[in-house]
Specification:
The protein is mainly alpha-helical. It contains 14 helices and no strands. The mean pLDDT is 92.
């Protein structure tokens, strides 16, 4: 029988006091307690509960690790089951670590059907405990499953129109744009050169792309030249 106490006991068997102290500084949500389980062990425990999302979904949201397990189980659901709980899952995303680890695999074969959800989450400003991370989830979902030529217009539109003021939203947009540069450099560079999106997103995206071994030296030189011009524009705008 799957029980909350049983899951907590299993998780506490992997608890490390020093890691718990470290993770408390990383986890953004002060409402979540931290047991202190490292990611490999946390994924191992989640795997033991595959097939029991219905039961685990009813457990309290008191611990970071329990919420992580819930999201892991949800990410393994069939698409027709996942979309029924998608809103509830994103409502749990009150932290960047939870957000970035949540990549529902079923979206890969149902991209067209999931686009309305992405647009909804990207525009959400209320109704969720961690609205900033709901918007970041929309961007990371695009990154995980949509960086293909057919979806570039969607990606560019989402980057241009997202509320990039929150730090983790801006970084999510930059991460997504950097991945576009890696896989579709010409289209990504054209977007960087012409778009009206937040200049800070452009700068962060260029930095991330230039750190990638998948970008050629010639491309990095071109990006750095563009970055220099963008920084000059940013300085001029401050005066």
């Amino acid at each position: 029988m799957v029980t909350y106490d049983g899951l907590l006991e299993r998780l506490r068997g992997f608890s490390e006091e020093e890691f718990a102290a470290f993770n408390r500084r990383v986890v953004n949500d002060e409402k979540l307690e931290v047991i202190g389980v490292r990611m490999p062990q946390l994924r191992k425990v989640a795997k033991e509960y595959y097939g029991y999302f219905g039961e685990v979904s009813l457990f309290p949201d008191e611990y970071f690790e329990v919420v992580f397990v819930k999201l892991c189980l949800a990410s393994r659901l069939k698409y027709e089951d996942f979309i029924k709980v998608s809103d509830g899952c994103v409502a749990l995303l009150s932290d960047w670590a939870l957000c970035d680890c949540f990549a529902p695999a079923c979206v890969a074969k149902n991209r067209e059907s999931y686009i309305p959800f992405i647009k909804k989450y990207l525009s959400e400003h209320g109704g969720y405990r961690g609205g900033e991370f709901v918007r970041r989830f929309a961007l990371t979902t695009l990154l995980h499953f949509y960086v293909e030529e057919d979806y570039l217009p969607l990606i560019f539109s989402c980057i241009e129109n997202c509320d990039s003021a929150p730090y983790y939203v801006a970084m999510g947009a930059a991460w997504l744009l950097a991945e576009v540069l890696v896989k579709h450099y010409a289209a990504g560079f054209e977007f960087l050169s012409s778009t009206m999106c937040d200049i800070n997103i452009k700068l962060k995206a260029i930095s991330k792309a230039c750190d990638s071994y998948r970008i050629s030296p010639a491309q990095k030189a071109e990006l750095r030249a563009l970055r220099a011009g963008l920084k000059e524009k940013l300085r001029a705008a401050k005066f």
